[in-house]
Each structure stands twice: as structure tokens, then as C-alpha cells.
Amino acid sequence: MFDFVLYFGPLELLAVLLAVALSAAGAVWWRARRKQTQERQNLLNSLPYPAMLFSGPRLAASNAAADDWRENLDVQTIVKDSLAGGQNIVRTIPAVEGQAFQVRAIRLNNAETLLLLEDLAAAQRQQAFYRNFIQNVSHELKTPLTVIQGHTAKLGDAPNDPASFQASRRIITDETKRLTQLVDNLLTLARLETPSFTLEKSDVNLSGLLEDVILQVSDLAETRGLALSLNLAPGLPRLKADRARLKQAILNLMDNALKYTPAGGTVTVSARSENGQVVCSVADSGEGIPAEDLPYIFEKLYRARRAKGRPVEGSGLGLTIVQQTIRAHGGEIAVDSELGKGTTFTFSLPIT
Fold it and tell me: Whose CA is closest to 17, among 55, 37, 47?
């Protein structure tokens, strides 16, 4: 019977699952000692955290992440205290360069103890990331829902005003599309980050795909007073690609361009073949991106600053999805921008 103290969080759940797995492996110790030892080692090696397994006070196994901790006196003290008290222990210990680690000693049985170490600074960064994520997504969901709610009520207030009715209907449609795009981005990012994710490749006519993209955003561009241009080099080769994923990535680039280009501006999509690759670009004449933000714009949830007084829009997911999608196809993407002079995103994809 295991005596676990339960803590909530990814590492805590991992600790419990590992304890069960390691103890299950221990049940066949006498029948398959060599196999059991390898299974335990494989479990430890699969962890990104420092992890050690002690038999009594003796270190029996550990992963590479725990190399710097094997002779640590604080760790040895925690193991001895856990053995002496017969209980699980959670304790914070100092480490190098001002870092602090939380150590969890989990009793597997009377003789064995599993030790897991977590960098508290990294855990705090992860918690801050998810707080930021929830705040961003909540805001991006709430804004269109509020608009839809307001214009739905307006439709009922002015049933005999055709102009007002059509305006509200158009706004509701646009905000519904915005919600759909956000949900699509969330689902796509989840799929892209799944280890088992694979592209559904087929023979793709890139010229036709880019024409579809231009057609899909033409109404929005017209509403915002923007001109669209499509420049396709003759004889563009076909690609082996996931058409749906590639189209979504290009639409995300177009969404950025349309969002940050003022009325009267232009958005240009170009494509050419070069050195066994297809090179595509989405260029706008918009407000541009500050130089200090450029190294980070593909990071998840990162949103570049805007000119003073202008709100930062978007969930911070679109460009992350673009980069991951392009890289999943074996390509690369780069950005060139200057404040007040617009932004150009250029990506390349292998032809075969």
C-alpha cells in the first residue's frame, strides 16, 4: 500500500504516475531483474526533469538531467529523512546562480524512493505563460461575442430599417468569422504540437491556392479600404503539401497584413520558384514592426508593440502556427520590417 501525498500540477501528476509505473516494474523484480532494470531506466530517461531512484540511501538509477545532483548533500539528506520518517517529502533547496529547486521524495515501498527535482523559476515561467494565454484567448473570445450580442439586439430594435439591418448582419458575419479563426488556430496549434501529428500531403496547385486566399479575404480588404495584389511567376510547380494547413498559414499572414495596414494601403502576395524551392511572400505597406520585437514574433503568445495609442490585437498564436506549419513542410520563414514602411513575410517550401 503506497502512502502518497497528493499535489496538483503537471509534475505532481507525473510523480504519482511514475511511482505507480516504477512500483509495477518492481513487482517482477525476481522474475526478470534485467528487464525490470532497463524498464525503470527508460522511464527515468524519458523525463525532462532531474530524476533519481534510490534503494535505501544508495542511488540505484538516474537520468542524464540529474548528473549534477548525484552527489548533492541536500538531496542525500532528503532521501535519509524520507527513509527515517517513512513519508513522502516536498522540500525547496537552493541551487547554482540563485535558482531554487523543489525536491519531491516519493516512497515507492519500504526500501525505494523516487526523487524528482523541479526548477521553480521554470515552473513560474510556465504558470505565467498559461495565465497570459488564458487572458489573451479570453479577450479574443469576449470581444467578438460582445459585438455579436450588441448587433443581435440591434436587429430586433430596427426591423424596418434595411440599411441598419444589413450593416448589423455584415458585422455579425465578420465577428463570427473571427471567432471561427481563433478556434481553428487553437485546434491547429494543439495538433501541430502533438508528437503523432502528420501532414496530409497531396498534389497542390500553389497558384490556385493563392488565388483562393485572395478571393477569401477580398471582401474584408475592400471593407478596410485596402488594395490586394497577386504576383505569380509563370510556370509555378506543384507542391506535395497539406493544402488545408498551408492555406491556413497563408491566411494567418494575410490576417496580420490586413489588420495592421491602414486604409489606402496595399497587400501584395507573390510566388516564384528558385533553386528547387517555391518562395512566397506576403508584403504590406502597414505600420511595420519595431526592430526589438522582430526576434520574438514567432514565439507563442508574443504580440509586438504598436504605435502609441493603438491597441495590440490578436491572440499571439497566428505567427507561431505559420512557422510550425512551414517547418513541418520542410521549409523556413523570415520577416523583414521597418517602422512606418511595412512588413514582408517570406517563406520557402521544397518542391518535392
Answer: 47
Q: From CA 229, how far away is CA 282, in angstroms rounded?
A: 10
**Radius of gyration for the alpha carbons in the chain, expressed in angstroms and rounded:** 27
Please determine, for residue 30, whether its predicted confidence score (pLDDT) is greater than 50.
no
Q: What element of type H or E holds 188? A: helix 162-192
Taking residue 292's Cβ as centre, other Cβ atoms within 10 Å add up to 9
**Residues sharing a CB contact under 8 Å with residue 99, sequence separation 6 or more, in sequence order:** 119, 120, 121
Q: Which amino acid is at 284?
A: D
Sign of CA dihedral 237, 344, 335, 259: negative
| Whole-number Å distance between alpha carbons of 197 and 170 | 36
Residue with cell 485572395: 214
What are the grid coordinates assigned to 338, written together? 521597418
* pLDDT tens column, 99-121: 778 888 888 888 888 888 887 77
C-alpha cell recorded at residue 2: 503506497
- Cell numbers placing 312: 495590440
The string of DSSP codes covering 61-109 is EE-GGGGGGTT-HHHHHHHHHHHHHTS-EEEEEE-GGG-EEEEEEEE-S
CA distance 258 to 224: 8
Query: 41-94, pLDDT tens digit by residue?
Result: 888 887 777 888 998 888 888 888 888 888 888 888 888 988 888 888 888 877
pLDDT surpasses 60 at 317: yes
Read off the pTM.
Answer: 0.58
Rounded distance between C-alpha atoms, residue 133 and residue 147, angstroms:
22
Give the domains, in start order, of the chain with CATH numbers: 10-122 (3.30.450.20), 126-193 (1.10.287.130), 202-350 (3.30.565.10)
**3-state secondary structure string across 7-67:** CCCHHHHHHHHHHHHHHHHHCCCCCCHHHHHHHHHHHHHCCCCCEEEEECCEEEEECHHHH
